[in-house]
Amino acid sequence: MIELLKGFPDNVVAISAHGEVTKQDYETVLIPAVDKALQSHDKVRLLYEIGTDFTSYDASAAWEDFKVGMKHISRWERVAVITDIEWIKHATQLFGFFMPSVMRVYPNAEAAKARLWITQAA
Length: 122
What we know:
Layout: E1 2-4, E2 12-21, H1 23-40, E3 44-57, H2 59-71, E4 76-82, H3 86-98, E5 102-106, H4 111-119
Parallel strand pairs: 2-3, 3-4, 4-5
Antiparallel strand pairs: 1-2
Helix pairs in contact: 1-2
């Protein structure tokens, strides 16, 4: 499940993943939030927090994640991923190599630092 996090500027899409993340989570939560932010801003920021109760992505969710990232590749200003899961850290770092935006991975213990970075002026 993906939930939107509140208390962020409207150019920041902040989400948290819990349990199993599905394609439906992307279609009903993340994609509409990104589309809404892009209506008002040329570039947006993404904070993606992987909760400690996260269990998995289904295959279609992983594909949706890739599609959302690539569809708006030139419109991401910053991306912060918060996780202690090694394979997600490595995948994010690999994908970040191809992104024109700044992408950082933070451990769960540094969630406050990630939240500060994603909202700071450029």
